Amino acid sequence: MAGFRHLLILTPGFPESEDDTTCLPYLQQFILTYKQLHPELKITILSLHYPFNKSHYHWNSLPVYCMQGKNKHGLRRAYTIYKAYKQGIAIHKADNIDHVLSIWITDAALAGKHIAQKAKVPFFTWAWGQDVKPGNKYLKLVNPNEDHLAVMSAFQNNILKLSYGIEAKHIIPNGIMTELFPPLNTGKRDIDLLAVGSLIPLKQYHLFIELVKWLKENGHHKINAILVGDGELLYELKSMITGYALEDNITLTGALPYARVLDLMNNAKIFVHPSSYEGHSTVMLEAMYSGCKTVAFLPSGVNDENSFMLCNDIESMKVKVTELLAKPLQYKRVIYATWDENVKRIHSILSSL
Predict the structure, then answer these.
(1) pLDDT for residue 303 is more than 90
(2) Helix, coil or strand: residue 281
């Protein structure tokens, strides 16, 4: 459908205002870039669960409708999906929708599928994370058409195929908005190790603390590390830092505004990402664009061995980090994909449906 006019985007959550920079920054950047590249296109956002206390508002002049599902389960979840479906149809009746795009394969995608069927318009799904792993009941219910499905990486597509026998036709990675970054710091950097993410079991930040402990015990007595993020393991990780007497070596900042995170990356030597799973890690792309040497357990898509080091386990990560700390580092930007490029791809795909 070349030259379509109205795009409905469904998502489980969305920022409550322009100031809510910590809520899904990559989703914000994708939609902002889409708006910038296609000002002629009307974009409407339908969020199922977050914000918890807003039902209809505008974000960067775009209309947002939230069903305030609050991640409830059981009958409340079914009612949230139904509300989203009814709202989507009401939006279509008021101003014809041409395409429905679901971010993640969740309950939002299930609502989106039925909205698209009722409105008789194309439905496209973009898997962004853990939604391709085994146990996602919504993936089976949505049963996406492979031609109308995208994932963020070949790694994610392989998990999808192994888990459900489905292989997405399109691979569209995460991206960055280069204009948001400060000028590259090629000089002195004061942060030896930096990690950023949600403090949940999946991210394995206990290994970050173990790494700092090991480095301190092996000659790096003044190692300076920062862990940025908030989540269910906050107090457990704080206790771990205290138990290892690493208060002078690790700063646990909590959640920070997005611009502040980019400033920290611009002052960090090494970015450590010990996560056990990612669809395609945005934060690694941001770190490498900020000049950080990046070590991780999962592929980034970047084939620059001087900037990205894939580690098999914590022991090999210790070796890589020790090698990096032992030599003078040169900091350069490494770019894998921008949101400009990705929006052009997704818009081209949608236009062809």
Answers:
(1) no
(2) coil
